[in-house]
Specification:
Layout lengths: L3 E7 L3 E8 L6 E9 L2 E8 L9 H15 L3 E4 L2 H9 L11
Parallel strand pairs: 4-5
Antiparallel strand pairs: 1-2, 2-3, 3-4
Protein name: N-acetyltransferase domain-containing protein
Pfam families: Acetyltransf_CG
InterPro entries: Acyl_CoA_acyltransferase (IPR016181), Gcn5-rel_NAT (IPR045057), GNAT_YJDJ (IPR031165)
């Protein structure tokens, strides 16, 4: 997504993706909990009102999925947004989503 920068920070048990969009205040976020080295839970996605409708939540979800694939992880989509995205793309995400 043009003009959107996504950062990832983590601890031993949690992770957080933060998306900033040039020219807009605030940031979108997607948080995860680490169950094991190969299993993570997508907990929560939030985007400020000023950034809604710009594809920020989708960019966060796609980054999470891309990173999980690269790291050999599976995602439990507890977050309603990630769950809806995974349901919509169920076949193409079958390798990374843990239902």
């Amino acid at each position: 997504m043009t003009n959107t920068i996504i950062f990832y920070t983590d601890t031993d048990t949690k992770g957080r993706y933060a998306a900033r969009r040039l020219g807009f205040d605030g940031e979108g976020e997607l948080t995860v909990s680490k169950v094991s080295p190969t299993l993570i839970i997508a907990d929560h996605t939030a985007v400020p009102d000023s950034m809604r409708g710009m594809g920020v939540a989708r960019a966060l979800a796609e980054r999470l999925i891309s990173d999980a694939r690269a790291n050999g992880q599976r995602i439990v989509p507890l977050c309603p947004y990630v769950r809806a995205h995974a349901t919509k793309h169920r076949e193409e995400l079958a390798d990374v989503i843990q239902w």
